[in-house]
Predict the structure.
Amino acid sequence: MPLPTLAQLLPAARDGDARAMEQLLALARPDIRRYALRHCAATTATDDVVQEALIIVYRRVGALREVAAFGGWVVRIVQRLCMRPVLGWLKGEPLAQVEDNLAWSHKPDHELRHDLALAIDSLPPIYRDALLMRDFEELTIEEMAERLGTTREAAKSRLHRARALVREYLLPAGTTGTTGSAVTP
């Protein structure tokens, strides 16, 4: 008996058929893993992205209207999950608040990456080094301080200042950090 196709599984999964949902997730898993390997490179653990993407597909498949849109939708989910570490540290706030920020919501991921690279490049070297060590190399504060030749407190201060400067660079003038609404004097 041939395996069901995406076109057969998706409508049934949207309608709440548990068996169809299970088969849909099993069918999508290899593609999600391939996308995660391609898009996440060194930013996150691929297995975590795959698992979270499957959870999102499970929870939100009912909102997908067209079968043909499934592949692109899944790729977009994976891309956003790969951006999580980068976006999350910008604010030090839960991901939902970062994703809901109007300053970023309209931009495609490649533009976000470009803007982030420009923001990081604009930092003075002492702040850029601290930021890259902590958020990209994932060093501990103690390891950072040792490599920077400074105290733990000074390393934390540099990291905090670097993140604040990146936020200032990325947020449009006159917006707040959480809602994107105009600041009132």
In short: The radius of gyration is 20 Å. The longest helix spans residues 18-40. The chain is about 70% helix and 0% strand.
